[in-house]
Amino acid sequence: MNVAIKRCVALFALTAFLWLPHGAAAEGIQTASRxxxxxxxxxxxxxxxxxxxxxxxxxxxxAKPAEGKSWSDCSCYRPGLILAADxxxxxxxxxxxxxxxxxxxxxxxxQGPIESLALGSNAGVRGAIGYRTFSGWDAVFTYTHFDTDAxxxxxxxxxxxxxxxxTAPASFNNNAAAxxxxxxxxxxxxxxxxxxxxxxxxxxxxxxxxxFRAAAIEQNFGVQYEGGTVVGERIQxxxxxxxxxxxxxxxxxxxxxxxxxxxxxxxxxxxLVGDFSILYTENETGFGGQGNVDVNYHxxxxxxMLDAAAGVSWQTGRLTWQAGYELTAVLxxxxxxxxxxxxxxxxxxxxNVGRDLALEGLFARLVCDF
Length: 370
Description:
4-stranded antiparallel beta sheet, 370 residues, 10-stranded antiparallel β-barrel, 2 helices, alpha+beta, Lipocalin
């Protein structure tokens, strides 16, 4: 179009030069030149204004997510039915499982290493079912189960003995030639939570969640002593059952790396109210029933829980594979019954020392979105 206009202006100038008088022709040529200059000046101004408008639009698009981008465009959190299954490899850690002191001699001095029991690593399972809406909200129910046990036997050193750390002074016994200890843990946690996904950056979605948590945890610990001052067998048992419920809140995020890979992290905290039931018994065969113990303790207390996890994730179609490390801390889970009185004075005097539980290990998860 610009070329056609140039040709028209040039033809007008040539016609004015050939047909008009010299003065009029010159004036016509000047008029045509001014028209051409004005047209192109105006065209240039319009083009610059158009470019500035396009540049401003690009700036606005860069400052905000592109039209149509939302949390649902993130493949980590798709709307629909959610099913998940986890395999756990957990190693529990807790104190208060001591049962004797291996003394190398038989004098009245107490010396030697403290013998204790450590719960072994074992596999656990976790399952989840939920639904996520197109608005970004979801509701998920999760169940976690883990159990483990352990045992250990210790013989007194040659020429020595084992000082008992798990007997009441009423037993009139304080050392043995052998000790056999057992312990087990049964851990069940139920979570019902609601979550919402926000997208502060296209490659970094964040899910905020909160809800209700219930826990049923049972621990058992027992020791059997033989020989030494024990007439037959002295058996000590302590069982702790906790039923707790309360609230939980936390957040998780996925940092998307491309090609379906992402790095994720999760952290949450819970505050539960627990009903605790402790049963403590001691009995000795062949001792005429003297010095036996049979006490129970029921109380309520706060049960805080903290958990965190981190790992890598790979998604292909509707399936997501995850693997990582997780850590759970259960505070104030148990109170060890420790008798502090003497054999003939204040036999029932005791202290209750709080114990915590830590669960750490690896997990592998498969998530399916429908």
